[in-house]
Amino acid sequence: MVLENTIQKEMIINVGPQHPSTHGVLRLIMTLEGEVIKDTKPVIGYLHRGKEKLAESRTYFQYLPMVDRVDYLSSFFCAAAYCYAVESIAGLKVPKRAEYIRLITMEFNRISSHLLWVASFLLDLGATSPLFYAFREREEIVNLFEQLTGQRMMYNFYTFGGVKQDFPEGWLTKALDLCKKMPKMFDEYEAIITKNPIFIERTKNIGVLTPELGIDYGITGANIRASGVNLDLRKPCSYSVYDEINFNVHLAENGDSYDRYLVRIAEMRESVKIIEHAIKQIPGGTPEKLKMKKVNCNCGNENCGYCGFDSQLTGKKANMVVFKPPAGEAISMVEAPRGIISCYVISDGTTKPYRVKWRTPSFSSVQVLPELIKNRNYSDLMPIFGSLDVVLPEVDR
Amino acid sequence: MHELYMELFNKLGIPEIFGEITWPIIPFVCVAALLIIVVLFLVLMERKVLAWLTIRKGPNRVGPFGFFQTIADAIKLLIKEDIMSKDTNKILFTLAPMIVFAPIMVIYGLMPFTEKFVAINLAAGLFLVFALSSLTTVGIVLAGWASNNKYSLLGGMRSAAQAISYEIPLIISVLSIAVISETLNLSDIVDAQSGGISYNILLNWNIFSWNIWPAFIGFIVFFICSIAEVNRIPFDLPEAESELVSGYNTEYSGMKFALFFLAEYSALFIISVLMVTLFMGGYLSPFNGYLSNILFQNIIHNQIILNIFVHFEQAFWLLAKTYFVILIIMWIRATLPRLRADQLMTFSWKFLLPLSLLNLTIVAIVKYLLNTGNI
Amino acid sequence: MEYLEITKEILVETVNNLKNAEDKQFNMMLSVSGVDKQDCFEVVYHLFSTAFKKNIIIKVKLERENPIVESLCGIYSAANWHERETYDLFGIIFKDHPELERILLPKDWIGYPLRKDYVLKDERLSWNER
Predict the structure, then answer these.
(1) DSSP A317
(2) Chain C interface residues facing chain A, Cβ-Cβ under 8 Å?
(3) How confident is the model at residue C130 (pLDDT cuts 50, 70, 90)?
(4) Distance (Å) from the C-alpha of residue A361 to the closest C-alpha of chain B?
(5) Of these four, A174, A247, B52, B356, which has the most CB atoms within 10 Å of its CB?
(6) The domain containing residue A91 runs over which residues?
(7) Minimum CA–CA partner of A380 in chain B
(8) B151 with A13: Cβ contact below 8 A
(9) A155, A158, A159, A160 alpha-carbon torsion, rounded to 10°
């Protein structure tokens, strides 16, 4: 820095790419006046892995494990977005049971993602213990996923036209047990966080995202719902089987950091209810029962509850090597924990996708950050940036 | 004690002059040893307590219950490379950790750990304690400035602002203690808290004459301010790791960082000792008289040995109360998030300062009424 | 899903109409994607209406030699970064964009990697093409 004036009022500070609270490798070039942020310029791209370019040199099936890495905290949603897009190009129908399995896993993933958000958000604010309490519950969800898919983070579980495996024996019982336990655990952190005067002081009326600003910047998910915009792709349902399940979309009014916290906590509670409901009405019931019935049924009827189409795991099995969807294009939109993930796939009739475009919610959230933290104290960076729930791999893809 | 020490020299046949020279040094050696031991134990305690509060196990690999973990950490810090970036102000950068550490070490000498174990017994001890403890801020600001790092600079600036706004309610709340005890000598302040409030049984326990009762508001103010004084959550703004990376000590490594670390924990200990001394009867037992007097009176008739027992008991009571206070401070650390800089100032100026003044007024009125005998 | 293929001259006007019309209200821009169609470029805009929960896809064809299109930053703030990304990866130039520079790739990157005729110069990076 060259000292031009004898009294220099502004200081340029470089936050990141290695900084404890930028959730990865975001870089913010900030102009501070004292401790007041005057200007911010986000610099992204440190985690750019060329996911869109990689798709063009791989077959549809080879690309399938890679989509999990778009957002490592909500891998199921990325995989679902890609699968729905390819399925609608190829005209593959997904059986109901597979849709239910997708729904249950996706909702569990939403809880685990929100839990990690609670943990990191409170850690940014300086409270250490919610991190460990949130990880205690996340661990149980991750254990369930490990039993189901064999993986703890990158599941590679969905396939075109369904899912790869049925639940292992006893999985649904464990999931129900966890669902029963979970609301009590949420109560535990609400007791330590929600009414904490310091937490309220740090987050209330901080980083207010007005509905107009949010829509203008394309903010989606819990962030825009906290501003009072009823935008949830699950209701009215535009994908999967959410229309068969009763649940509420939680909104808040002010759109500040505190409301974003409240909405996410409410969403976790709602997700628990969705899972309980879905497990109750999954077509074919538990895997043990389904296996027995299937052996004894043999009726060959398409609409049979046990050996018909809707209780299968995949519809038409696609050949991994020569899977060629017809030329065409499709866009899929999925309500991920951070907002709308959309995947735009163009096929030219060969085994490789012609173009895959990812639209990720955090990309917009980072874009709106300079607007929210302008003229605020430097300490407000953490409650604002943390509450937007940004995952950097998703921004850079 | 002095006679015993000199006798030792006589028996060994060493000229008495060596004894006379070494005698004043002994308290300081003891204080230095105490400081190191206290910090080693405190770090382990902090890690264990935080681990228990956050459903973890804590250090459990080095030695029994991870007892030697801190020693391993200390060795690691000692043999670490001392990094100094190019544009730092080398002299001030080296000086800063010492300026932070030295005053705290002197304060250790001023504290009455037991009736006799006071290295420097001053008439204006209380005054000197606060004069010295403000000096550490100079070191922190210096560290922030000399590092040539913007995070450090912000940390140093915050530390200065915090120290100015929190030392005022702190000192005003201590002023009420001076009013109650009518002295600034720390040992006398402790002695003034003995005796209970009446000669009746139970009511003559020391616990009832602790300063915490007349100056309860002052105690609350002092407690909050002392957490701010030692830069711990929720007031750890100078080193808020999610905002300023590590604040004023971002650029420090090796032994210089270790000095900051040492200063931080020894400050935590000493402020708790001070709190106990001023408000909770210091080394006095909460009962009437000492337990060892009551228990061993009929068994041991040698008064000197009994006095030694009493001595150890006083140290025990002081440490027990101190660690209780530290435990609460650690508990707070595990529970609360961090305040924002301007909220911190608002809290201090608009809430703590009026409260401490109110406390002082109440105490002064009560004292006046007591002295004139109107109650 | 509605598709709308328009020429680049009427893009701004069309989008303005779509955003402001009472019965459409496409007030959110979800994404801007470039597509290399070998003979031409295509810019695909995904708009979303929060009021009616409807999508619309707008496609604009650009000639390959000189891909220039009007920027939509004045209509949607979200367009800023999305257009920068498209410029970064395809080299499509958005006129009147406030700061058209690379966003995901380093500033000194040569070429536009998502074009179909893009060849990686460094052999170590192109391992999967062999």
Answers:
(1) P
(2) 1, 27-31, 33, 35-36, 44, 46, 50, 53, 55, 57, 76-78, 80-82, 89, 102-106, 113-114, 128-129
(3) very low
(4) 24
(5) B356
(6) 6-396
(7) B340
(8) yes
(9) -140
Same domain (yes/no): B91, B132: yes
Separation between Cα atoms, residue B342 and residue A360, nearest integer Å: 36
Q: Same structural domain for residues B163 and B65?
A: no
Between A200-214, B195-209, C51-65, the lowest mean confidence (pLDDT) is in: B195-209
Q: Determine A/C contact with 3+ CB pairs under 8 A as the test.
A: yes
Residues B64 and B89 placed together within one structural domain of the fold: no
Cβ C42 vs Cβ C61: under 8 Å: yes
Q: Are B45 and B92 found together in one domain?
A: no
Q: In chain A, where does DSSP find H-type helix?
A: 51-55, 60-67, 75-90, 96-125, 129-149, 171-193, 197-203, 211-216, 222-225, 257-280, 287-297, 361-373, 381-387, 392-396
Chain B contact set for A14 (CB, 8 A)? 150
> What dihedral angle (degrees, nearest 10) is formed by the CA atoms of B277, B281, B284, B286?
-140
- Measured between beta carbons, the chain B residues lying within 8 angstroms of A33 are none
pLDDT digits (tens, 9 = 90+) for A296-352: 776 766 666 667 766 777 777 777 778 888 888 888 888 888 888 888 898 888 888
Q: Which of residues 335-354 of A touch C (CB under 8 A)?
A: 340, 342, 344, 346, 354
- Report the CATH number at residue A140: 1.10.645.10
- Count the alpha carbons within 13 Å of B236 in the hemisphere toward its beta carbon: 28
- Mean of the pLDDT values across residues B71-94? 84
pLDDT tens digits for range A179-203: 888 888 888 888 888 888 888 888 8
Among chain A residues, the shortest Cα distance to C37 is held by A354
Q: Look at residue A90 and tell me if it is in a domain.
A: yes
Of B53, B336, B340, the CB nearest to A377: B340
The tens digit of pLDDT for each residue in B33-52 reads 888 888 888 888 888 888 88
Pick from A215, A236, A344: which is nearest to C53 by CB?
Answer: A236
Residue B340 is part of which domain span?
Answer: 80-372
Q: On the CB side of A236, how many CA atoms lie within 13 Å of its CA?
A: 5
Encode pLDDT of A373-387 as tens digits: 888 888 888 888 888
A interface test, pick of C1, C33, C45, C55 with most A CB neighbours within 10 Å: C33
Average the pLDDT over A160-185 and give the result.
86
What residues contact residue A62 under an 8 Å CB cut-off, 6+ apart?
Answer: none
| DSSP 8-state class, residue B339 | P
How do residues B297-353 score in pLDDT, each as one tens digit?
777 777 777 777 777 888 888 888 888 999 998 888 888 888 887 888 888 888 888
Cβ of A355 within 8 Å of Cβ of C33? The answer is yes
Q: Establish whether chain B is in contact with chain C, requiring a minimum of 3 CB pairs below 8 angstroms.
A: no
> CA-CA distances (angstroms) from residue B83 to A17, A36, A173, B71, B251?
21, 31, 56, 22, 8
- Residue A31 located in a structural domain: yes
| CA atoms lying within 13 Å on the CB side of residue B68 | 7
How many domains would you assign to chain B? 2
Q: How many CB atoms are closer than 10 A to CB A324? A: 16
Q: Which domains does chain C have, with CATH numbers?
A: 3-129 (3.30.460.80)
Q: With 80 as the cut, is the pLDDT of residue A3 above it?
A: no
Q: Which amino acid is at A193?
A: I
Co-location of B331 and B341 in the same domain: yes
DSSP secondary structure letter of residue B347: I
Give this complex's ipTM: 0.84
Q: With the CA atoms of B127, B133, B134 and B140 taken in that order, what torsion angle do they form, in degrees rounded to the nearest 10?
A: 170
| Alpha-carbon span B240 to B236, nearest angstrom | 6
Residue after which a domain boundary falls, among B79, B99, B125: B79
Residues B227 and B335 in one domain: yes
